Amino acid sequence: MAPDDMTIKLASRGQPGPPPSRTTPGCRHYDRVMSLPLDTRVAVVTGASSGIGEATARTLAGQGFHVVLGARRLDRLEAIAAEIGGTALELDVTDEDSVDAFCAVLPRVDVLVNNAGGAKGLAPVMDADLDDWRWMWETNVLGTLRVTKALLPKLIASGDGLIVTVTSVAAFTAYDNGAGYTSAKHAQAVLHRTLRGELLGKPVRLTEIAPGAVETEFSLVRFDGDAERAAKVYEGITPLIAEDIAEIVGFVASRPPHVNLDQIIVKPRDQADTGRFHRTTG
């Protein structure tokens, strides 16, 4: 581990050390974050380089939050951050050092949106690809755990923290060939719901948002870039779009401190369940 990386890991755990280096990966905009006025409300959005994450970052910025955007595609993050007046920091939620570096440079956090996640593959358990399963669990479950655990002290210290975790309707059901994704989303959702009790009495609210079919890069990633196969997922329906979910996040974030919206399930009108749709043709 490089010296600068070690410095950030120490600082993130409350141990003494000099400030993170501006040359450390993920800390290019350290000065911008640290120079924010003390009363600036800060919202952190993971998986913010596209889709629901990007739309959420734009929505929260419009509500007056300084948004810290985290994802692996830093060039894309920087373009969005420049448009909304936010801060782009490289983040890989599957890598503990990356998470530690990201979280260490944040002076305060009022809102955390756990949005990083995704699916890979669609296969029966008998043919399960362990690499795909490992990626889904690392991203959806352990990624949510890493970031949430690291930022909880700052969320509590804010006096009115909010954790929004974007799960899925897949967290409530099971379907053929989808065990890798549904099991990961079940686990992510249980992690989030457990915090509701563990943080009772602390100044932190928790909301789980479980979307149905949202037309983003989700299916493109799931099917390894097969655009034709991804398009068929939304064929004949009017799916949700990223902004639909972002508006809900914004609504949750605008509630007064005593109001906790525990769980919000949102699906297109054309969708009854994970595999049950009303599709039109022609």
Automatic annotation (TrEMBL):
Pfam family for this entry, one: adh_short
Region (Disordered): 1-28
Keyword Oxidoreductase attributed: yes
Domain of life, per lineage: Bacteria
Keywords: Oxidoreductase
GO molecular function: oxidoreductase activity, acting on the CH-OH group of donors, NAD or NADP as acceptor
TM regions (residue ranges): none
Ribonucleoprotein in keyword set: no
Similarity-based family: Belongs to the short-chain dehydrogenases/reductases (SDR) family.
Stated name of the protein: Short chain dehydrogenase
Species annotation: Rhodococcus hoagii (strain 103S)
